[in-house]
Design brief:
Isopropylmalate Dehydrogenase; 11 helices; about 15% strand; about 350 residues; elongated
């Protein structure tokens, strides 16, 4: 029988999803295991965990979850989670660090590489990544800032686009991990117009229909005709008009204090935020624990929870797995081509 998400056991073989456990010292292992167990028990997906078997086994014992080595041709077994064990320097540590560490950075990097291979080989339909520590990657000498940069290199699909989704709100980001001053300086007509065109096409492919896209304004009241800033007049409006002249349904700049509410009410399919916090604040206010990040531009679906490693929550029992659950659910849903 289908579950509450409309998915049934009959199509489980097509729903195998690779799930990394993230930074071993963060909450990733715990929330990945809880979310994978939930997804399996509710027929949402067939998760394949990717990480340290020894580490995850400790959590699994406490949670009453059974792990088994992943073998591609094994049939689905109720109540048993398959896992691909990935050796790394973290296996040699006497105890896990309480913060960023080169061994955990190297480990989480290897987990992503191995999980990506599973998807590229057709052994999994989608990729879900638990949080990594950018600082740990830096300490380990990893040449990539984050998941997105690594995935772009592994798939040769650079640059990639990201959007957040939660409670019906979808937000794309023109700039992401930039200081606010640099993000504002990056708002120029030509790169914004190119971004909007790519975002529109990617959303159209994902949603299966031409999207209604809104661009958030930068300044209060969309600049108040230039009195509160000229970015809207000189950069944003020309970029939007360029897309509209090509027949694309793009509106804006729409005042940022209204556009996210309008989108949540169905006026738009997605909003383009100009900088990181402009979009993340909106998403997390609407649905803090249920927001999911989705990567566009890859040859496969990739999602992740919208939270970090939360080192301070490790071992407290307070780590909330819901965003990871939603990430797995959305990965299966998008991979199946069911986006409504």
């Amino acid at each position: 029988m289908p579950d509450e998400n409309g998915l049934s056991g009959s199509n489980m073989d097509a729903m195998r999803v690779a799930v990394t456990i993230g930074d071993p010292a963060g909450i990733g292992p715990e929330v990945a295991l809880r979310a994978a167990a939930w997804a399996m028990s509710h027929d949402v997906a067939r998760p394949v965990l990717v990480g340290s078997y020894a580490l995850l086994q400790r959590y699994a014992t406490r949670m009453g979850v059974t792990l088994r080595p992943f073998r591609p041709h094994d049939s689905h077994a109720d109540g048993v989670l398959p896992m691909l064990d990935v050796p790394s320097p973290v296996d040699e540590l006497d105890h896990l660090p309480s913060g960023p560490h080169p061994a955990t950075g190297e480990a989480s990097y290897r987990y992503v590489v191995q999980a990506t291979e599973l998807v590229q080989q057709g052994l999994c339909r989608a990729l879900v990544t638990a949080p990594i520590s950018k600082r740990s990657w830096q300490l380990a000498g990893i040449a990539y800032l984050d998941h997105t940069a690594l995935l772009a290199a592994l798939t040769k699909r650079e640059p990639l686009l990201m959007f957040q989704t939660g409670s019906g709100l979808k937000v794309l980001f023109f700039t992401r991990h930039l200081p606010l001053r640099e993000a504002v300086q990056a708002i120029r007509r030509e790169p914004l117009e190119r971004f909007l065109k790519r975002a529109y096409r990617a959303l159209q492919e994902l949603l299966g229909k031409p999207p209604r896209l809104a661009v958030a304004a930068l300044n209060p009241h969309a600049g108040e005709e230039g009195m509160l800033g000229r970015e809207e007049i000189e950069e944003l409006e020309p970029a939007v008009q360029g897309l509209r002249h090509q027949g694309l349904e793009v509106e804006g700049p729409v005042p940022a204090d209204a556009v996210f509410f309008l989108a949540s009410q169905g006026a738009y399919d997605a909003v383009v935020a100009l900088y990181h916090d402009q979009g993340h604040i909106a998403c997390k206010t609407v649905d803090f624990f249920g927001t999911v990040s989705v990567t566009l531009g890859l040859p496969f679906i990739r999602t992740s929870p919208d939270h970090g490693t939360a080192f301070s929550l490790v071992g407290t029992g307070r780590a909330n797995p819901r965003s990871m659950m939603e990430a797995i659910r959305w990965a299966s849903k998008y991979a199946e081509g069911t986006t409504s």
